[in-house]
Amino acid sequence: MRAKIPQRAASERIKNFLEVALGFSKEQAEKEAARCLQCKNPPCVKGCPVGIDIPGFIKLIKEGKRREALEKIKEKNNLAAVCGRVCPQEDQCEVACILNKKGIPINIGALERYAADYELEHRTPQAAARARKSTKVAVVGSGPAGLTCAADLAKMGYSVTLFESLHIPGGVLVYGIPEFRLPKQIVSNEVQYIKSLGVEVKTNSLIGVTLTIEDLFKDGYKAVFVATGAGLPGFLGIPGESLNRVYSANEFLTRVNLMKAYKFPEYATPINIGKDVAVIGGGNVALDCARVSLRLGSKVTLVYRRSEKEMPGRFEEIEHAKEEGVIFKFLTQPVKILGDEKGFVKGLGCIKMELGEPDDSGRRRPVPVKDSNFFFDVDTVIVAVGQSPNPLLPKATANLKTGKKGTIEVDENFMTSIPGVFAGGDIITGADTVISAMGAGKKAATSIQNYLGDVST
Ligand code: FAD
Ligand code: SF4
What pTM, to 2 d.p., does this model score? Predict the structure, then answer.
């Protein structure tokens, strides 16, 4: 039997922001690890975007060598505790696991988390900063792509400075993903580890405004990695989106997660949320907004234009949202947000949808059902229908080539149209996943090393 990760009861967890999934005990982890077949040519590794030696670390867990298991993971992944919690393993390593054919894949994510949490439970003194080369490299943006690239460059011996526009490093890991899925302390530990490698972190530095890319080269940086993410919120373009109590998912989550709006006035940022919230969207971001709203005491309806099968959110998060009491309205497309005489939201007008032929994403396209319009009462609407690449830095940087959707264009080595300027993560792909951003950060670090080797000879 595949072991399930223990979790807090739904009735308890909707009253607070404590972490929902609790992690394996030693016995559970070693029992689950013992199920691994130690495949000679393991398909799970091919499914992992950063190529972790999965059977290798699982074997070490089975042998009770938890610290060594973590070291094995860290050969490829600097953010193990993060990935063990938020990676969509069901679409990556676990779907590839040979035991998935029998419907009982190894719970690789939970085992990764078990190994990674060794560090939380046995705080070890930070390693001394490594010897630095004099060559300076700048990394812009401290999400998973920037953190990974900075760490790898520091391990290679470069003198790395990480510039972050917000006051806390971590990118979406701190401002987007809520505490109950990824405690801030975990991200803070990972940032500490990266600092311990010698990376200098400069917060409140908006590159493109505080300093330009040109300024960075003038300051002696020999290469720049841009990892500014996809933080520009999308809207539906329907009437009523400028009413009071309509939020973009980004604003809502940033206020609650990063600015601790739920602790107002102890924390300075307020949030105006009503008793009846509609969240529009079907991905992880929409699910996070819905579950945060529940914890703020509201009734929550999630409105999604396709069926449950097409939802892009992680399976585990969909299950958690259901257990916690989020109401799902599938095959429903909002067409209008209704307001009262004071300009506040009072309802959501929708039309029913049915599924037609598959679209470019391979999912069946939703098409409106004639004469099926209806509306329901809500007093808050959160729009979580996707994010686009942050436009500020590309706009402020002459000759930086961008694609149609605002992504920065790169070659096979992650180099942009400007020599010495590299880019990776959501800023080149559009909104994606933590692990793919990390994978890009890793590959870009190697490309930067090759590039700097090239220019110095
Ligand atoms: P980001 O994490 O977006 O980091 C970019 C950083 O750059 C930010 O800190 C930003 O402040 C900074 N920045 C921007 N412009 C500048 C500038 N000009 N100068 C300096 N700094 C700048 N993925 C998963 O795999 N699993 C999940 O469960 C999951 N849940 C998610 C939930 C939410 C709410 C959101 C929004 C996303 C989620 N994702 C999830 C997606 C994942 O978080 C992103 O794909 C990933 O964080 C992208 O990493 P990144 O490093 O490219 O960018
Ligand atoms: Fe173990 Fe599954 Fe990977 Fe085989 S595919 S090594 S069983 S985790």
Answer: 0.92
